[in-house]
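U., I forgot to send this yesterday:
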Amino acid sequence: MIQPIQTLYFALSIVALIVMMFFPVALFADAQREVWFYLHHIVVKTAQQTTSVTIYVLMPVIVVVMLIALVSIFLFKHRKLQLRMAIYNVIMLVFLNIFCLYNIIMLAEKNHLDYRIKISALLPLISLIFTFLAWWNIRKDEKLVQSIDRLR
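Result:
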């Protein structure tokens, strides 16, 4: 049987990352242009034209994090492996948060632009919290099973 609370937390983590892929993470602006920073591309809007540049730096990390969370849902019979997978996911989400904020700040400083971080930039942090909550509940279940084994 799939454990419902861990499944819910992993599913919410995946949903947060999927939503993040479709919304801009930051907006950079000056008098001549606006630059919308998404995880998979950058859109530059000027008065004359709009250009889009595709970037593939963060997408593989997000896809791997989502796959690990999805696989972790179905590892309910192997709690120790599920715990390890959740820890790997937490580490990758910390990396994703740091790397995303680093790119935003460096892009703004390099091009001398004012920037506004959008609410979707917090979604990896929300995903990190959900993954940590899933890890916490898996650990609690493992401790419960170990205590029952001691009673036998």
